[in-house]
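lol ok so funny story. i was supposed to be doing the assay writeup but got distracted and ended up predicting the structure for this chain instead. priorities right. anyway since i did it might as well share w the group, maybe its usefull for someone
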Amino acid sequence: MGIKELMISFIFTTFLLSLLFIPSVLPFSIFQSSNHSNSSGRPEKPYPVSFAYLISASKGDVNRLKRTLTAIYHPANYYLLHLDLEATPEERHLLTQFVSDHPTFSLIGNVWIVHKSNLVTYRGPSMLSTTLHGLSILLRRCQWDWFINLSASDYPLITQDDLITAFSNLPRDLSFVEHTSHLGWKIRKRARPIIIDPALYSLNKSEIIR
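and the output, tada:
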């Protein structure tokens, strides 16, 4: 076989191999571009930061809860609604129907309702336990940067877009909760009242016992 025939055979073989290789590369390239991956290979977030909200309400608060949720809603965030045990079954049904029938909530899927509700006493330990319960649910269900705890009576002073912009340049490990057990001289002056929260052992809501 001459050099000319050898070159033609080599070019033809290379062309066939390239045809076999192209189909295995194209789907991977298309998959990456459709997910808008960045240089690290992870999908880019459409918003710089996201917030997780726990909105708590009680009997007679459904309308205010819906108002607050609508006012602070943003597709970048996540919302967990807690209607405590004092609320009536009709109120729970109204809230569930409101969330399920809302076109945006259903499309984005970032609004949830706590089905196993707690009885909450204002300023009592049950209030803290409900907050921790909500936090654990949000940590399991989604990824977010900051947690905000609200009640149905709260109402925003700024838009969520402004809030996202303001927090976009802050370090993600920044916490706004300050706590220390080093009280110094205050430890001898601190009163230590005994507080009993009836919501921890009773289904009837009442004030905390000091």
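Residues 10-43 have pLDDT under 50 and may be disordered. The two ends are 104 Å apart (CA to CA).
back to the writeup now i swear
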